[in-house]
Specification:
With 473 residues, this protein is of the alpha/beta class. Helix content is 43%, strand content 16%. The chain is built from 19 helices and 16 strands. The strands form 5 sheets. It has a 5-stranded antiparallel beta sheet with strand order 2-1-5-4-3. Helix 13 crosses helix 15, helix 16 packs across helix 17 and helix 17 packs across helix 18. The longest helix is centred in the N-terminal third of the chain and has 29 residues. The protein starts with 16 loop residues before the first helix and ends with a helix. The relative contact order is 0.07. One of its GO terms (molecular function) is sequence-specific DNA binding.
Length: 473
């Protein structure tokens, strides 16, 4: 039997009839065979309980009597197979294949095959797929840990034009081998972009090596970057040590906080970038194949004018420059990014999805986020601890943040100034917002001052002093 080609029965005739019958009767799938007139000629035992007519009584009857909504007659009429269709039988979802049967150039019948005998079998398959997916995720994480990168382009969340421009440039940069300089304020995601560029580049199967130039003492930076030979200096290990550039061979080295690199090391780094050659302390030059990505939150051009950063090194590093926007420049993306963090934290903590109220989103968009995306992530982690329900509301936001948001609302752009108040100063506006925050904290705490102080993030004595200052009883 075949759906697309002529049936050749030379092989079938060589199979004993009892073996063919056993094959059909013990089939894992349920099977129905009808002739060209739609008469049921065979039903496997697996069909018992699926259709309203028992298997023994179905033989010889028209298929429409067994399954009123069947499409097997339609398949016989058109000669076209229907594979993987969903079907409701007795209130249960099934997956079915309907196949026309050809013999000697004509359609002699059709076969209907249920892919699963019952929903439990389908659930078993889903569970197996889910298990395999978790294994795949595990091995992906292991792979990323081995090669040093943790993020991909999918982690670059944002739809605002300024962010999309940076993301598009990152994708273009990944296709080349040119040095990349990522600039932006602290917390804007410079390291995340560096990881993503490496992950979609041809070097992704090799190491991503991060170096924080600001965190390593200047006297140790050379040995960290270039390594050392055994006994090269007092305290050097007996086995020697490869430097970060050697570890990044055929991969990517990420020089974070490049603006904090000491001037003497800038000279040596310049030579490495120019010659693609490193020399361990006490060793000989060695050719290394690497791609360099650097990042800074400092103004390198101003540092060049101040003679604290080398101009030649700057030109080596800034072949492709990606400028990351501050979060306050892409406030339309705040809800999307915050929801991403909340969903991610829910998965990590095995919690059900949590919603975020519209009031909370509006409050978050009022704030200027000096700590950028890093500060927003910190807030997401904090509210996840405080929120025990299924939605994040204003009460879950820390009071200092709400006070700053309310202060931000008192701006010339958001409200007309009171003509009766002369010279409404920023200090007055901040105090008004602080007073509102204290009143709100006392209200939500039921008048409990200790709890209100905790919500505000201040000492109880400080709360008493402020209540006295603002005349709050």
């Amino acid at each position: 039997m075949t759906s697309t080609s002529e049936h050749t029965d030379s092989g079938i005739r060589g199979i004993p009839e009892d073996l063919l019958q056993a094959l059909l009767d013990n089939s894992y799938e349920s099977l129905i065979l009808v002739d060209a007139d739609g008469i049921v000629r065979y039903m496997s035992p697996a069909n018992d309980g699926i259709y309203p007519v028992p298997v023994k009584e179905a033989i010889g009857r028209h298929i429409s009597e067994v399954s009123p909504n069947t499409r097997l007659p339609r398949v016989i009429e058109t000669g076209k197979a229907e594979i993987g269709r969903g079907l409701m039988i007795q209130g249960k979802q099934r997956i079915i294949a309907r196949i026309p049967l050809h013999h000697e150039g004509r359609i002699v019948g059709a076969a209907g095959k249920l892919m699963f005998m019952n929903p439990e079998k389908l659930r078993e398959l889903y569970e197996r797929i889910d298990t395999l997916k978790h294994r795949l995720d595990f091995y992906r994480e292991e792979f990323q840990q081995v090669y040093g990168y943790r993020y991909s382009v999918e982690n670059l969340i944002g739809e605002s034009p300024v962010f999309q421009q940076a993301k598009s440039l990152a994708v273009q940069a990944a296709a080349s081998n040119a040095p990349v300089l990522i600039v932006g304020e602290s917390g804007t995601g410079k390291e995340l972009f560096a990881h993503a560029i490496h992950q979609i580049s041809r070097r992704r199967s090799h190491h991503f090596v991060r170096v924080n130039c600001a965190a390593i003492p200047s006297e140790l930076l050379e040995s960290e970057l270039f390594g050392y030979e055994p006994g090269a200096f007092t305290g050097a290990g007996k086995q020697g040590k490869p430097g970060k550039f050697e570890l990044a061979h055929q991969g990517t080295i990420f020089l974070d906080e490049i603006g904090d690199m000491p001037p003497m090391m800038q000279v040596k780094l310049m030579r490495v970038l120019q010659e693609k050659e490193v020399e361990r302390i006490g060793g000989k030059p060695k050719m290394i194949d690497f791609r360099v990505i650097s990042a800074t939150n400092r103004d390198l051009e101003a540092m060049i004018r101040e003679k604290s950063f080398r101009l030649d090194l700057f030109y080596r590093l800034n072949v492709i420059v990606i400028r990351l926007p501050a979060l306050r420049e892409m406030k339309e993306d705040i809800p999307r990014i915050f929801n991403h963090f909340i969903d991610q934290l829910c998965r990590e903590s095995h919690r059900k999805p949590i919603g975020v109220s519209a009031d909370v989103m509006e409050e978050l968009k009022r704030y200027d986020w000096p700590g950028n995306v890093r500060e927003l992530r910190n807030l997401a982690e904090r509210v996840m601890i405080v929120c025990t329900g299924d939605r994040i509301d204003l009460d879950h936001l820390p009071m200092p943040l709400r006070a700053r948001c309310q202060a931000a609302a008192f701006t010339p752009d958001s409200a007309e100034p009171d003509p009766n108040v002369k010279g409404s100063m920023l200090k007055d506006r901040l105090e008004a917002a602080e007073r509102l925050a204290i009143i709100d904290a006392l209200r939500t705490s039921g008048g409990n001052r200790t709890l209100a102080a905790r919500k505000l993030g201040i000492h109880r004595t400080g709360l008493y002093q402020k209540m006295l200052k603002y005349g709050i009883r």
